[in-house]
Amino acid sequence: MTESARGIVDLQRRIAALPVPVLVRLDGPVRAGGLGLVAAADVVVCRDDVSFALTEVRLGLAAAAISIPLRHRLSGRTASDWFLTGRAFTADEARAGGLVTHVVDEAGMDTAVAAVLDDLRAGARQGLVAAKALLAADLLASFDADGEAMARLSGELFASPLAQERMAAALRR
């Protein structure tokens, strides 16, 4: 379990460390670990009917392996709400909380993504790389400082009898 969590932490760090901006297009629901991938990206275009949830707490887990990029994107109150309740939240809430950059309807997705890509392409690579490095520095430092501890915590929680019981029950439903 810890090794899997290390892989998730590493993948998120690699996304954040890419020298050029990473754009995510969200057309469907995002749960648990998927939120970490979204938070590791630079710009997120999301359909207005997409829902999100950090369901880990309901299974006796914590969003440990994905907490590093999420804590960098979210306000403290928003993180407390989403991490502690496990409730589903909307695309508009995700934007207000700092997880999502743009929210558009299904018909506008292609246009919105194209507009962001056009804006990114208008930047000079040197400027984009320097700006991305500035924006990612604190996040990358957090991965380096906390990544192993969060992976171990995640592995310990996943291996716990309570989490095993709750995950098995969820699969039976």
What is the strand and helix layout of this fold?
Blueprint: H1 2-17, E1 23-26, E2 30-31, H2 34-40, E3 43-47, E4 51-53, H3 67-73, H4 76-85, E5 88-90, H5 91-97, E6 102-104, H6 109-122, H7 125-159, H8 161-172
Protein model, in words:
With 173 residues, the protein is mainly α. The chain contains eight helices and six strands. The chain has helices at residues 2-17, 34-40, 67-73, 76-85, 91-97, 109-122, 125-159, 161-172, and strands at residues 23-26, 30-31, 43-47, 51-53, 88-90, 102-104. The protein has a three-stranded parallel sheet with strand order 1-3-6, sandwiched between helices. A three-stranded mixed sheet has the order 2-4-5. Helix 1 (2-17) runs parallel beside helix 2.
Distance between the termini: 23 Å
In total, the number of domains comes to: 1
Order the strands across the largest sheet as they lie in space: 1-3-6
Task: Output mean pLDDT.
Answer: 97
User: How many strand elements?
Assistant: 6
- The helix/strand series, from N terminus to C terminus, equals HEEHEEHHEHEHHH
Residues in β-strands, percent: 5-15%
Care to give the gist of this entry?
This protein is mainly α and 173 residues long. It has a single domain (2-160), classed as 2-enoyl-CoA Hydratase, Chain A, domain 1. 62% of the residues lie in helices and 12% in strands.
Name a few traits of the molecule.
single chain, 173 residues, mainly alpha, 2-enoyl-CoA Hydratase, Chain A, domain 1, three-stranded parallel β-sheet, three-stranded mixed β-sheet, 8 helices, 6 strands, globular
